[in-house]
Amino acid sequence: MGEASAIQDQIPDNHCFGCGPHNGHGLQIKSYWSGDDTSRCEFTPEQHQCAGPTQYLNGGIIATVIDCHTICTAIADGYRQAGRATGSGDKIWYATGKLDVNYRAPALIDAPAILEATIVERGPKKTRLTCTLSSGGRVCATAEVIAVRVPDNW
After folding, report:
1. Dihedral, CA of residue 129, residue 143, residue 150 and residue 2, to nearest 10
2. Are strands 113-122 and 31-33 parallel, antiparallel or unpaired?
3. Is there a contact between 59 and 137 (Cβ–Cβ < 8 Å)?
4. 3-state DSSP call for residue 49?
5. Contact 78/94 with Cβ under 8 angstroms?
6. Where are the alpha helices (H) located in the chain, listed in sequence order?
7. What is the layout of strands, in order, in the sheet containing 126-135?
8. What is the mean pLDDT of each run of 10 residues along the chain (154 residues)?
9. pTM score, whole prediction
């Protein structure tokens, strides 16, 4: 199932702060298919992305990586559903319609954050996904995301 290059690297003109390979100041997350409807991302935090207590990852960064991982998964799935390689032909874009994050435990700043997204439901205009973020061997956040198809010129 795994592809040689990250989903984000296949999306043309992706300048997003969280996932855009064309944003040198961004988080540069990389997601890969791990199953038919599942994707995985390993994000290594940097010390300046800490929360108030410096041993933990900031909650906004957690939300951002969940958001970007799931939306990029929806975009890649949109290309799959169209029968095309990610990034080929007319652009397919999704944007966040809903991001519902439940924080369960602090995520460690000095350990990789492992994100696993699952497509739960797909339609012509919306894709619903769930995501977990784990760190240090425990689930630190769970999320439900609605990805909404937007025009290719958005």
Report:
1. -50
2. unpaired
3. no
4. helix
5. yes
6. 7-10, 59-81
7. 31-33, 38-43, 113-122, 126-135, 138-150, 93-103
8. 80 93 94 97 97 97 98 97 96 97 98 98 97 98 98 83
9. 0.96
